[in-house]
């Protein structure tokens, strides 16, 4: 039986914006270092994602030392954004729940406002441990998360993607497949697993880090957005609704919470402990 290995790692510094694929990254209590510490919000403080603005997929955030980022997008000049100085906290709403963040420099607000064609601001989460907890329905005491949807990490397997693409090929809209893994924006991609095996992972080790499997990941309209063109289709939600439904959720991938910190690397073995 082949070993399960980390095939790719992905860090998205700005929520819903394209990120990077490092060869290794440190695991912090709230997720991979630098992942989703920034987000874009509207004038009312609601976090903007690809759900509302598919064009965010075409923008990119490249991490700099110290937590800063370099922003780029079609038709836009690059902009370097430093981590804001500690200051007055601003309340924002993420899926209707309030958390407090720090505003970035006004140049970053102007950059995103111009790119999206609507007033927008860039915000930074200074201290995840103090600002936001994991969904209490599935959290253990003291678990925290950045501006990710609800959990520190998302893991997915190549075998499950292959199985999903086979289902799409036999469905009503085969022309929309095969889909690439970036539709699902995972943090960790695993090779060598069996299809849907990750559904049952309760505790896994990657490198010198250990994670607990909290729940299957419910998917939304973002997965129908081509990350290279920002155009939307029907898949994979149409096929997930037929074959991968748990309650009201259409699922792909598994949400993880770190229980032992360390560093994860491309090529690391993934070991199921429970």
Architecture blueprint of SSEs:
Layout: E1 5-9, E2 24-28, E3 31-32, E4 38-41, E5 47-48, E6 60-63, E7 69-73, E8 76-81, E9 90-94, E10 97-103, H1 106-116, E11 121-124, H2 128-131, E12 153-157, H3 158-169, E13 188-191, E14 203-206, E15 209-218, H4 237-243, E16 245-246, E17 249-260, E18 262-265, E19 270-272
Parallel strand pairs: 12-13
Antiparallel strand pairs: 1-13, 2-3, 2-18, 4-5, 4-11, 6-7, 7-8, 9-10, 10-11, 12-17, 14-15, 14-19, 15-17, 16-17
Q: Quick summary of this structure?
A:
This protein is mainly beta and 274 residues long. Helices cover 12% and strands 34% of the residues.
Largest sheet: 8 strands, mixed
How many individual helices? Answer: 4
Query: How much β-strand is present in the residues?
Result: 25-35%
Element-level helix/strand string? EEEEEEEEEEHEHEHEEEHEEEE
What gyration radius follows from the Cα positions, in whole Å? Answer: 18 Å
What would you call the shape?
globular
Mean pLDDT: 96
Share of helical residues: 10-25%
Which structural class best describes the helix and strand composition? mainly beta
pLDDT < 50 runs, ≥5 residues: none
Number of strands: 19
